């Protein structure tokens, strides 16, 4: 029996805790989460504000189980959906054992990160700073940036990483593991996320949707997994519906002769098959659902609290 197995089986000397990843949109939180967990558990897109709900990625390091909360990017909210996402992000930080602030080293102390550092004063518990994308920033500027950020908020320590290349991720993970509270693990050893597979599959398709149509499609679109059926032989049949707000958007998603929808489906199928560890038969449908951005039920489905007003 391995050291990890013996520790978790006996419930001795194990650690388990929550780490909230917060930052401005496109700081690289989802990319970092996937690197920390070792597989895709959350949507990664060049289009900002794509993470909507708190998606927990679960990672094991030695005797520690670290539950990462990938929060929506924090930004100035304009719409009802925006307000729900920002509220959700800060709630994730307030509830965590440790808050990790991810900062895009290329952008530095800009108008996106400044209010986040200011708001951190209201967050109890330890906080660390993670400078991301250091592979594309001159080394001599990183120390100055770290010093300036630490003057604005009280951080226990600072890590410099490249989430995309996984540089520095191992050291970060080991440091976090040592600082998790003592206690039993909350999830089985082989579980990588607490979001159900249906939700993860929907997130993957939404990622491919944004990758393909990042210019034409607004944020008011969503994907729901309507059916997940395990077939004989281990294959999985999945039916998903892409909801948009207008007929013109539906036509964009389908594309000429259905080409766009087929391309989205094929890209999504490959990634879903990887996390499902099975051959996947994916069927996509596109429907118009006007005003879904003001429907409380849709917010609850995404794990967001419906903001009033």
Strand content: 15-25%
CATH class call of the largest domain? Alpha Beta
- How many whole angstroms does the radius of gyration measure? 20 Å
Mean pLDDT: 78
From the 3D coordinates, which CATH architecture of the largest domain would you assign? 3-Layer(aba) Sandwich
Q: State the fourth-level CATH superfamily of the largest domain.
A: P-loop containing nucleotide triphosphate hydrolases
Order of secondary-structure elements: HEHEEHEHEHEHHEEHHEH
Q: Trace the largest sheet across and list its strands.
A: 2-3-1-4-5-6
Q: How many domains make up the coordinates?
A: 2
Catalogue the unreliable spans: 1-11, 43-53, 73-77
What composes the largest sheet? Answer: 6 strands, mixed
Task: Supply the helix-strand structural class.
Answer: alpha/beta
Q: What's the multimeric state?
A: single chain
From the N-terminal CA to the C-terminal CA, the straight-line distance is 56 Å
Treating each run of at least 4 consecutive H or I residues as one helix, how many helices? 10
Gross morphology is globular
How many β-strands, per DSSP? 9
CATH fold naming of the largest domain: Rossmann fold
Structure explained in plain terms:
The protein has 309 residues and is of the alpha/beta class. It has two domains: 3-178, Rossmann fold (3-Layer(aba) Sandwich), CATH 3.40.50.300; 197-301, K homology (KH) domain (GMP Synthetase, Chain A, domain 3, 2-Layer Sandwich), CATH 3.30.300. Helix content is 36%, strand content 21%. Strands 2-3-1-4-5-6 form a six-stranded mixed sheet, sandwiched between helices. Helix 4 links the parallel strand 4 and strand 5. Helix 7 packs antiparallel against helix 9 (259-276). The longest helix is centred in the last third of the chain and has 18 residues, at 259-276. The N and C termini lie far apart (56 Å). The model is unreliable at 1-11, 43-53 and 73-77 (pLDDT under 50).
């Amino acid at each position: 029996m391995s050291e990890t197995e013996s520790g978790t089986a006996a419930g001795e000397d194990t650690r388990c805790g929550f780490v909230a990843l917060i930052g401005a949109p496109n700081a690289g939180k989802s990319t970092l989460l996937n690197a920390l967990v070792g597989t895709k558990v959350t949507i990664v897109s060049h289009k900002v504000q794509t993470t909507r709900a708190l998606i927990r990625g679960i990672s094991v390091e030695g005797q520690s189980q670290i539950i990462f909360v990938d929060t929506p990017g924090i930004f100035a909210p304009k719409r009802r959906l925006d307000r729900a996402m920002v509220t959700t992000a800060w709630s994730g930080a307030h509830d965590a054992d440790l808050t990790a602030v991810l900062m895009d080293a290329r952008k530095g102390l800009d108008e996106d990160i400044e209010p986040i550092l200011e708001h951190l004063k209201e967050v109890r518990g330890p906080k660390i700073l993670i400078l991301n994308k250091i592979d594309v920033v001159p080394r001599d500027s990183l120390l100055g940036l770290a010093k300036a950020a630490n003057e604005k908020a009280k951080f226990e320590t600072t890590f410099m990483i490249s989430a995309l290349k996984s540089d520095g991720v191992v050291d970060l993970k080991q440091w976090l593991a040592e600082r998790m509270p003592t206690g039993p693990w909350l999830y089985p050893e082989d579980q990588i996320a607490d979001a159900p597979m249906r939700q993860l599959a929907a997130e993957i398709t939404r990622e491919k949707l944004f990758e393909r149509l990042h210019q034409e499609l607004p944020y008011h679109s969503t994907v729901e997994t309507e059916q997940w059926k395990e077939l004989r032989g281990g294959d999985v049949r999945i039916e998903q519906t892409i909801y948009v707000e207008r007929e013109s958007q539906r036509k964009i998603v389908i594309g000429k002769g259905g080409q766009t929808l087929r391309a989205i489906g094929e890209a999504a199928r490959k990634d879903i098959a990887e996390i499902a560890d099975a051959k996947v038969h994916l069927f996509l449908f596109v429907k118009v659902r006007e005003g879904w951005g003001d429907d409380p039920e849709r917010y609850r489905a995404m794990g967001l609290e419906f903001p009033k007003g």
